[in-house]
Design brief:
The complex is a heterodimer of chains A (998) and B (459). Chain A has 998 residues and is α/β, with parallel strands linked by helices. In chain A, 28% of the residues lie in helices and 18% in strands. Chain A folds into five domains: 1-134 and 451-476 and 496-541, Phosphorylase Kinase, domain 1; 141-202 and 382-446, Rossmann fold (3-Layer(aba) Sandwich); 206-256 and 269-376, Dimethylsulfoxide Reductase, domain 2, CATH 3.40.228; 568-698, Beta Barrel (Barwin-like endoglucanases), CATH 2.40.40; 718-742 and 749-866 and 901-997, Alpha-Beta Plaits (2-Layer Sandwich), CATH 3.30.70. Helices cover 75% and strands 0% of the residues of chain B. The chains are: A alpha/beta (998), B mainly alpha (459).
Chain lengths: 998, 459
C-alpha cells in the first residue's frame, strides 16, 4: 500500500545516497587557499550559477575555501560519521560560538562551541534552529532584477555602474556586523560619493548605551556579573530572556544559585528582585517581583538610590503611589544597603536614558563597578541610526540605496518605508529571503546563510570569534559582505590595497592576521597557523586584562536621571520575540512553534495585559483590541497574563510578516512596528499614553498550555533557603512516596547501564533551548498553527509552567517535562502489539515500526509526554530535496499513525557505548549527553548511568532535594527533579509548596 | 379480579387476537415474499445515505489519517471509542434475550429474540469498525493484533486490555453469528418451502443447510441451541467486562475503578433493551406485527430497562462516593470535573437520560403506551451514548498534570462516522427485515400450539 511508503527508513536511505555521492569529491577540500588551481579557476569562472543545477542532495558541498574541523590532527571524513566545525552565530542578536555537527558534509545539528568564552558550549533556541533556516526552501535562490532572475555578474555590473555614477549612496545594515565587516563598510562608504551608512534595528540597546557613553565618558558597556552578586535587582531587564549575552547571563545567574547538600547549613544563594511591567523569563525566576509600569522605573531607581545613600523617606511614599508593598521596598533597600560590593542593579535596554543614569548612580553607590559590574570597552553591536536621519537622507534623494540583511519595509518604526525607498534611483536589497524589503527593491540579491558564510565577531575584549561556513551555498547566493567587497573593489582606484583582496574570505583572513598581534609579526607560516587554529577552535579567546571601570560623571548622571518620559495612562512595551527576535526568523517553523516561555503562545502574538487591566478595558482573552499610538494603530487579540503590571500592554515584535516564505504566512499575529517609537525618542520600545479600544470580534490565541494552576498537586516542589539550611531534605516532607507493592520480583538493573536523568529546577530558568535542541536532534516535525490549537504539537520535551499564590503577581514554577522512562511504565503494559517496551538499561523504548497507533499508551501516560503523528507532518519536508537534508540520519523519521516520544537520545547513548567499546574503555561519566542537556544554558540537566556510583547522575539522584513527579503512582520514573531553593527576603518569606500542599 | 387478569399476571399473553399457525407464517413471511413497501424503500433510502456517509468518512480517515478527527493529546480517544463501547453495549440485549432468557425459560422472549439477535450481530459488525478505524495504521492493526504465526518474532502483548478486547469481541461476534444462524435454520427451511421462484428456493435452500424438519434434526438442533445459549450466557457478562477493562486497567483517574465491569454490563443491557424497544416498535408498525409483538413484550422490556437504570444509577453514585471516600486527589478532581467542569453538560445529559427519565417506567401506563415510552427509550439511547462520552473524554481531558489539560471537539468526520454508523446498522436491519424472518417462527409455533392446547384444556 502506498501509505506504507513513509515507513521505510528514510533517513538511512538518504544517508546512503549522500554517502555514495560524497565519495568522489573527497580529497578535494584541502586546496591551499592562496593558490588558484586550475580547478578553482574553472569553478570560479563557471560561477555559482551552476551550483543549483548540480542538485543539492546529490553531492557533498564543501565550501570553496578551506574550512577546518575541530578534529586535532589530520582530518579525514568517514562516511556517515559526524565531523564538528567551530563557527559563530552571526545572524542573531549576540554572536555566540557554534559547534556544527556535519554528517557527509551536511550540517545537521548546532551545538555551542565549548571553547567559546561567552556561551561555553550552550545554545539558545534560535541558534539550534539555524539548520532549519539553512535548508529552508523558501530562501531567495538567485539574484533577480525587477523580478527576473539575473546572473550575479550582471547584477554586480548594474550596481557598480550605478555606484560609479551615483552622487549619493545609502547603505543600510543591521547592527550586528563583525569588526571586519564594519571595516569593509567604512571602505565602501569612503569609496562612494556622498555615501552614508545607516544602521537599522528595532531591538537595540540604544538608550542604555547612549546613557553610559554620556555618564562614563566613553563607549562601552557595563557587563553584569551575576555570579558575584548576592542581591540582584532588575528593573525591567529580561537578562535571562532577551537582554544582552543571555546564555552567559543564565550561566552566571545559576552559578550564583547553586547549593550543596554537604554544606547546606551555610548555603548562600543570590536573591533576585525583579521589577517589571511585562511578565518575563527573568520575572518568572524572581524571588520577589514587583509589578511596575516601565515609566515608574526611573522613579524607583532614584528612590532606591536616595534610600541606599541614607535617605529612605521617599520609599513609603513611592510604595503607596505605585501600589507596591512598602515592606518589600524596604526589604530591597535594606538588602542593597547591606550588600554593598556584592549587589547589582540592571535595567532593561528599552528604558529611557534617565533610568540608566539613575541605575548607574545606584550601582555606584553599591560599589558594583569592578565587583559585580565589569567594563567591556568593545561594543558587540553598532549603534542604531536615528530613523529621522534616514528618512531625511531619502527625502533629499538617493541615487543608490543598498540594504544589507535588513528589513525596514517590515519593521520601520512608525512609518511605511516603501515610499521612501522608491525615492532612490536604484534600490538594492540583499537578504536571506525575498522578504518585504527585497520585494520592494529593484535588485533583489540573495544572501548566503550564516552556515554558508565567512565572518568574525568581537563581542568583548579578548573574545574574537570566527565564523566559517560548513557547506557551500545551497543556492546561487552570496553573503552580503562578499557583495560589498566586490563593489568596493570595483570602485577603488587602481593600485588600491582593496584590489589585492581576492574575495571576502581572503579579506577576512588578512584582517584576522593583522588583528592577531604577534602572529602578524611571525610571518606567513605563523599567520597561517594562527588562522587554522582559529578555525579549529572557533576563534581566539584570551582573558583580556580587566579594563578599569570608567568613573561615573555624577553630575551628568544626576541631571540626566531627572528626565522622565512624559505622559500617563496605558503604556506599551515592545518585547523582542523570544524566538523570532525582531521577525528575522519568522520563516523558521521550529521557532514559530516554540511556546513562549511565559504565555505558551505559539504562531501568534497578542496584547498581554493584567487581569485588572482587561477588566477595566472590558475585554476577555481572545477579544480583539485596537491599540493606537499617535496616528497608527494595530489590532491584536488580548491575552490575560498574570504578572503583568496594571495599565501595561506587552506587545511582541516579530509577527505579522507578509513576505519571505510559506511558513510565516501560516502564522497569526500582527506587525506592531508601526506603533513603535523612533530611536530619536527617549525610549523607542516604550509607548506611553496609548489608546486601547475594544475591536471587532475575537480570535483564539494559540497556546500549548492553558491551565497554569497546580490544583494543589505535588507536581513541582520547592522550598526556601531557610528551610533548606535547616533541613537539606526538606522536600521529603512534601513528597508522596508510594508503598512499593508489587506482585513481581523487581527487575535487576544492576548489570550494565541504568540510564537516568536529573533536572535541577533550581537552575532551570525556562528558556526553551532544550525544546528546540530536541526538535533538531530527533527530527521532530512542525505541525503548524491549527494543529497546535488542537493540542497536537509534537515536542518531546516541554517546559511546564505553573502559577501559584497571588493571582495577579504569582510565584512561578517551571518544569521541563519529558518522558520519565518509568521502570513501571503504564504505557508499556497497555500496548497491544508490544510497540513500547522497557530496555534492560532502564529505557522506555518506542518501536515505531511496530506501532499501530492505538494511542492507549498516551492515554495511560500520567505525564502526557507521548506524541502522536495525527497527520503526515513530515510529508512535505521529506520530499523536498532541500528540506530533507536537515534530518538527523541517526534518527528515524516517523510516519503517520505512530506514537513517538523522548528516547533519552538513544542514538547518542549507543554512539557513546560503541565508542567506549571500540576504545576498550568504560563509558565515561558525562561522555554521553542528551541534546537537551547539551544545549541547556543553565546546565540544569544531568544524564548518565546510575550504576556508576561515582557519576554525577548518581549524586543528583541521591541529592536530598531530589523528588520524582507522580511518584505516588509507583511508576518509578527515571527522571529526578531537584527542588528549587528560593531565596525570599527572610522578613517576607512567602509560602512554599509545603504549606500550599498541606 | 377477573380470570383474565389472573391469567395475564401468571403468563402475559404473547399474542393478540386470533393467531393461527397459518396466519403466523403469512404475517412473518409476507415482508420477505412481497415487493417491498414504499415505507421500506423510503427508510432504506435514508439509512443507505447515512451508510454512504460512513463509508466516505471512513475512507477519508484511512487516507488522510486521524488528523481529520478531533482527538489530540491528552484526549487520545474520542468518538470512535465512545461509539465502539456504545455499539457493543447495544448488542448485549440480543444475547441476553436469546441466551439467558432462553435458559430461564422466559417464553416471552420468542417474539423478540430473532430481532434482538440480528441487532446483536449488526451492532457488533458496526462496533468492530471503530477500533480498527481509530488506529493510526489500520492496515497493520487489522492483523498485528491477531496472534498469527509470523516471521517478525514479536508476539502480542497479552497484558494489554486492547488485546483482551480482540479476543472478547471476536468471540462474541462469532458466537452471536453462529447462534443466530442456528436459530434461523428451521425458519429458513420454511422460507424455502414457501418459495415460488426457483432462485429463491435455491438461496434459502442453501442457507437452510438442507433442513428437513426430521426428529433427528430437531433433536440435534435443540441441543445445539441449548449449547449456544450456554456459551453465550457468560459472554453477556464477559464482553462488556473486558471492554470496561480498557478503562479500568489504566491509571487514568475516572477510568481506574473496580466497579467498571458490572457497571458496564448493566449499562450494556440497559442500552441494549432500549435499542431493541426503539427498533421493534418501528418494526411492528412497519410490518403490522402488533399482534405478535404485543404491549406485553414492551412492558416486560421496560421493566428490565427500569431495573438496569437503577443499577446504572447506583454505579454513578457509588463512583462518586468512592472517589470521595478513597481520598485520591486526582480521582476526586476527575469526578468533580465531570459534574462541574467544561463537560458538565454531557454529564448531566447522561444522568438525566439514564437515571431520572427511566423512572417514568414505574408507571404501568407509561410502560404500556408506545407514545409515552418511546421518548423514554430514545433518551436512554442518548444517555447511554453520553455515558461513554463522559467516561472516555472527561477523564482524559484533565488528568494528572494540569499543564497538559486540553479540550476535545469532534470534527465533521467524527460526527459523520457516528451518524453513519447508525446508517450502516439500520441498513443492515432493514435488509434483515426484507430477507430473513424477523421472528423465530418455529418457536412461536410451539408457544402458539401450547396456548391453543391450554385454551382447549381450560376452555
Amino acid at each position: 500500500m502506498n501509505l506504507e511508503s513513509v515507513e521505510k527508513n528514510h533517513s538511512r536511505e538518504m544517508m546512503l545516497r549522500l554517502k555514495a555521492a560524497a565519495l568522489p569529491s573527497h580529497g578535494e577540500n584541502p586546496t591551499p587557499p592562496d593558490e588558484m588551481t586550475r580547478r578553482d579557476a574553472i569553478r570560479v569562472l563557471m560561477g555559482a550559477s551552476s551550483a543549483l543545477a548540480l542538485g543539492l542532495s546529490g553531492c557533498e558541498r564543501k565550501p570553496k575555501r578551506q574550512i577546518i574541523s575541530r578534529v586535532a590532527g589530520p582530518e579525514y571524513q568517514t562516511p556517515g560519521k559526524a565531523l564538528y566545525y567551530s563557527s559563530t552565530w552571526t545572524e542573531g542578536p549576540y554572536p555566540y560560538g557554534l559547534m556544527i555537527k556535519t554528517v557527509d558534509g551536511r550540517p545537521i545539528k548546532i551545538e555551542g562551541n565549548p571553547d567559546h568564552a561567552i556561551n561555553r558550549g550552550t545554545t539558545s533556541a534560535p541558534m539550534q534552529a539555524a539548520v532549519l533556516s539553512l535548508y529552508d526552501p523558501d530562501r531567495s535562490r538567485a539574484p533577480s532584477h525587477n523580478g527576473r532572475t539575473t546572473p550575479w555578474d550582471g547584477a554586480d555590473r548594474l550596481v557598480i555602474e550605478a555606484l560609479r555614477s551615483a552622487s549619493s549612496v545609502v547603505l543600510m545594515t543591521r547592527s550586528n556586523l563583525g569588526p571586519t565587516e564594519r571595516e569593509l563598510v567604512l571602505k565602501f562608504i569612503s569609496s562612494t560619493r556622498n555615501g552614508r551608512h545607516f544602521v537599522h534595528e528595532v531591538v537595540h540597546d540604544g538608550p542604555r548605551l547612549a546613557s553610559w557613553e554620556k555618564i562614563y565618558g566613553k563607549k562601552g558597556e557595563a557587563l553584569p556579573r551575576f555570579d558575584r552578586a548576592a542581591v540582584i535587582l532588575s528593573l525591567d531587564s529580561d537578562f535571562l530572556g532577551t537582554d544582552g549575552a543571555v546564555l552567559e547571563n543564565i550561566r552566571l545567574f545559576t552559578d550564583g544559585r547553586q547549593v550543596s547538600d554537604a554544606d547546606h547549613r551555610r548555603a548562600e544563594i543570590s536573591r533576585l528582585y525583579v521589577a517589571d511591567g511585562a511578565m518575563t523569563v527573568t520575572g518568572s525566576n524572581a524571588d520577589h517581583r514587583i509589578r511596575l509600569k516601565p515609566s515608574a522605573m526611573g522613579r524607583l531607581a532614584r528612590v532606591l538610590l536616595r534610600a541606599v545613600e541614607g535617605d529612605a523617606k521617599e520609599v513609603n511614599a513611592f510604595a503607596s503611589e505605585a501600589g507596591v508593598s512598602s515592606a518589600l521596598l524596604s526589604a530591597i533597600t535594606e538588602d542593597l544597603r547591606s550588600h554593598r560590593g556584592n549587589a547589582l542593579v540592571v535595567a532593561g535596554p528599552h528604558l529611557p536614558e534617565g533610568v540608566h543614569a539613575a541605575v548607574a548612580m545606584l550601582n555606584d553607590a553599591l560599589q558594583a563597578p569592578g565587583k559585580t559590574l565589569d567594563w567591556n570597552p568593545v561594543l558587540p553591536n553598532l549603534s542604531v541610526s536615528d530613523p529621522a536621519d534616514v528618512e531625511a537622507a531619502f527625502e533629499r534623494g538617493v541615487d543608490v540605496a543598498i540594504l544589507l540583511d535588513t528589513n525596514p519595509v517590515y519593521d520601520w518604526p512608525g512609518k511605511d518605508f516603501t515610499p521612501l525607498l522608491s525615492k532612490a534611483r536604484l534600490t538594492v536589497g540583499h537578504s536571506l529571503y525575498l522578504d518585504e524589503t527585497l520585494a520592494a527593491c529593484e535588485l533583489a540579491l540573495p544572501s548566503s546563510h550564516n552556515l554558508e558564510s565567512w565572518n568574525d565577531a568581537e563581542p568583548r575584549g579578548g573574545v574574537m570569534s570566527i565564523c566559517q561556513p560548513v557547506i557551500a551555498p545551497l543556492f546561487d547566493t552570496r553573503q552580503s559582505a562578499e557583495s560589498l567587497l566586490v563593489w568596493t573593489k570595483a570602485l577603488s582606484a587602481e593600485g588600491d590595497a582593496m584590489r589585492n583582496f581576492e574575495d571576502w574570505h581572503n579579506y577576512l583572513q588578512r584582517r584576522w592576521g593583522e588583528r592577531m598581534a604577534g602572529a602578524a609579526d611571525g610571518g606567513e607560516a605563523e599567520r597561517r597557523q594562527s588562522w587554522e587554529d582559529a578555525l579549529r577552535t572557533g576563534g581566539s579567546f584570551v582573558t583580556a586584562p580587566p579594563v578599569p571601570f570608567p568613573k561615573l560623571d555624577r553630575a551628568a548622571a544626576e541631571a540626566m536621571s531627572q528626565a522622565e518620559p512624559q505622559g500617563s495612562g496605558l503604556e506599551a512595551v515592545f518585547l523582542p520575540h523570544h524566538a523570532l527576535h525582531d521577525g528575522r526568523f519568522a520563516n523558521n517553523g521550529w521557532l514559530q512553534e516554540l511556546p513562549d516561555p511565559v504565555s505558551k503562545v505559539v504562531w501568534d502574538n497578542a496584547a498581554s495585559v493584567s487581569m485588572q487591566t482587561a477588566q477595566r478595558l472590558g475585554v476577555a482573552e481572545g477579544d480583539r483590541v485596537a491599540i493606537r499610538v499617535g496616528e497608527h494603530s494595530v489590532e491584536l487579540p488580548v491575552l490575560v497574563q498574570p504578572g503583568m503590571a496594571d495599565d501595561v500592554v506587552a506587545l511582541t515584535l516579530g509577527h505579522g510578516r507578509t513576505a519571505g516564505g510559506r511558513t510565516l504566512e501560516q502564522a497569526g499575529g500582527a506587525n506592531v512596528s508601526r506603533i513603535l517609537g523612533r530611536s530619536s525618542q527617549i525610549a523607542p520600545r516604550l509607548a506611553i499614553g496609548l489608546q486601547v479600544t475594544k475591536g471587532r470580534g475575537s480570535q483564539q490565541v494559540v497556546r500549548t498550555q492553558t491551565e497554569f494552576s497546580m490544583h494543589g498537586r505535588p507536581i513541582v516542589l520547592d522550598g526556601n533557603l531557610s528551610e533548606y539550611r535547616e533541613d537539606a531534605g526538606f522536600v521529603e516532607h512534601k513528597r508522596h512516596r508510594p508503598e512499593p507493592v508489587t506482585m513481581f520480583p523487581p527487575y535487576d538493573y544492576s548489570k550494565g547501564h541504568k540510564w537516568a536523568m536529573a533536572i535541577d529546577l533550581g537552575s532551570c530558568v525556562g528558556c526553551n533551548a532544550c525544546v528546540t535542541a530536541c526538535q533538531a536532534e530527533n527530527n521532530i516535525p512542525i505541525v503548524g498553527r491549527k494543529q497546535c490549537a488542537n493540542g497536537r504539537e509534537m515536542h518531546w520535551i516541554r517546559i511546564d509552567r505553573y502559577l501559584d499564590g497571588d493571582t495577579e503577581n504569582p510565584l512561578v514554577h517551571q518544569q521541563p517535562m519529558l518522558c520519565q522512562h518509568c521502570d513501571n511504565a503504564p504505557c508499556e503494559s497497555v500496548c497491544p502489539v508490544n510497540a513500547t517496551t522497557h530496555s534492560p538499561e532502564g529505557l522506555n523504548e518506542m518501536v515505531y515500526n511496530r506501532c499501530v497507533g492505538t494511542r492507549y499508551c498516551s492515554n495511560n501516560c500520567p505525564y502526557k509526554v507521548r506524541r502522536f503523528n495525527f497527520s503526515r507532518y513530515h510529508e512535505v519536508q521529506m520530499h523536498d530535496p532541500v528540506q530533507e537534508l536537515v534530518f538527523n540520519p541517526q534518527v528515524t523519521v516517523r510516519g503517520i499513525g505512530v506514537m513517538e516520544k523522548c528516547t533519552f537520545c538513544i542514538q547518542r547513548i549507543n554512539e557513546g557505548k560503541f565508542l567506549a567499546k571500540n576504545q576498550g574503555k568504560a563509558v565515561e561519566d558525562g561522555g554521553i549527553r542528551t541534546a537537551c542537556q547539551q544545549a541547556c544554558p543553565a546546565q540544569a540537566i544531568t544524564f548518565g548511568d546510575l550504576n556508576d556510583a561515582k557519576s554525577k547522575i548518581a549524586k543528583m539522584h541521591a541529592a536530598k532535594r531530589a523528588f520524582f513527579v507522580l511518584e505516588e503512582y509507583n511508576v518509578k520514573p527515571n527522571v529526578a527533579y531537584l527542588a528549587r531553593v528560593r531565596n525570599p527576603h527572610p522578613a517576607l518569606a512567602g509560602p512554599t509548596t509545603e504549606s500550599r500542599h498541606g | 379480579m377477573s380470570v383474565d387478569t389472573i391469567a395475564s399476571l401468571a403468563a402475559p399473553s404473547l399474542f393478540v387476537g386470533d393467531v393461527t399457525l397459518r396466519t403466523l407464517d403469512d404475517d412473518i413471511y409476507r415482508p420477505m415474499e412481497s415487493f417491498p413497501t414504499m415505507r421500506w424503500w423510503m427508510a432504506i433510502a435514508v439509512t443507505g445515505t447515512m451508510a454512504a456517509i460512513f463509508m466516505v468518512c471512513a475512507a477519508i480517515t484511512v487516507v488522510r489519517g486521524l488528523g481529520t478527527w478531533g482527538i489530540n493529546i491528552p484526549v487520545g480517544w474520542g468518538f470512535a471509542i465512545v461509539n465502539f463501547v456504545f455499539w457493543i453495549g447495544i448488542g448485549h440485549a440480543g444475547t441476553l434475550i436469546s441466551a439467558i432468557l432462553f435458559l430461564f425459560r422466559q417464553r416471552w422472549r420468542t417474539g423478540i429474540a430473532r430481532f434482538a439477535e440480528a441487532m446483536t450481530v449488526f451492532a457488533v459488525i458496526v462496533a468492530l469498525q471503530f477500533p480498527l478505524l481509530h488506529t493510526g495504521r489500520p492496515w497493520l492493526a487489522m492483523f498485528w493484533l491477531v496472534p498469527y504465526p509470523n516471521g517478525q518474532g514479536i508476539y502480542q502483548n497479552f497484558r494489554s486490555p486492547l488485546e483482551w478486547d480482540v479476543f472478547a469481541v471476536s468471540t462474541y461476534g462469532l458466537v452471536s453469528v453462529m447462534f443466530w444462524f442456528t436459530g434461523l435454520l428451521p425458519d429458513l427451511a420454511t422460507a424455502r418451502d414457501r418459495a415460488v421462484h426457483p432462485f429463491r428456493k435455491l438461496v434459502y435452500g442453501v442457507l437452510s443447510l438442507g433442513w428437513k424438519g426430521s426428529n433427528r434434526a430437531w433433536s440435534h438442533y435443540e441441543k445445539a441451541y441449548l449449547l449456544f445459549a450456554g456459551l453465550s450466557t457468560p459472554l453477556v457478562l464477559s464482553v462488556h467486562s473486558i471492554v470496561s477493562f480498557d478503562f479500568a486497567v489504566s491509571v487514568v483517574p475516572g477510568w481506574h475503578t473496580t466497579i467498571f465491569p458490572p457497571y458496564f454490563v448493566a449499562g450494556a443491557i440497559f442500552s441494549g433493551f432500549a435499542m431493541v424497544a426503539t427498533l421493534i416498535i418501528i418494526l411492528r408498525r412497519m410490518f403490522r406485527l402488533k399482534h405478535l409483538i404485543t404491549d406485553n413484550h414492551l412492558e416486560l422490556m421496560n421493566k428490565i430497562i427500569v431495573a438496569t437504570s437503577l443499577m446504572v444509577g447506583y454505579a454513578y453514585a457509588i463512583e462518586v462516593f468512592i472517589a470521595w471516600y478513597g481520598g485520591v486527589a486526582y480521582e476526586r478532581f476527575a469526578f468533580m470535573n465531570r459534574a462541574f467542569g467544561p463537560y458538565a453538560w454531557a454529564y448531566w445529559i447522561m444522568v438525566t437520560c439514564n437515571v431520572f427519565v427511566p423512572q417514568l417506567l414505574w408507571f404501568k401506563k407509561v410502560r404500556r403506551t408506545v407514545l409515552l415510552m418511546y421518548p423514554v427509550v430514545i433518551l436512554v439511547n442518548v444517555g447511554m451514548w453520553f455515558e461513554r462520552f463522559v467516561i472516555v473524554v472527561t477523564s482524559l481531558h484533565r488528568d494528572f498534570l494540569p499543564s497538559s489539560w486540553g479540550y476535545y471537539t469532534p470534527t465533521i468526520i467524527d460526527v459523520g462516522l457516528l451518524v453513519g454508523s447508525f446508517g450502516v446498522f439500520l441498513t443492515l436491519m432493514l435488509l434483515f427485515c426484507r430477507f430473513l424472518p424477523t421472528m423465530a417462527v418455529a418457536e412461536l409455533k410451539v408457544i402458539l400450539s401450547e396456548k391453543q392446547h391450554d385454551v382447549a384444556r381450560h376452555g
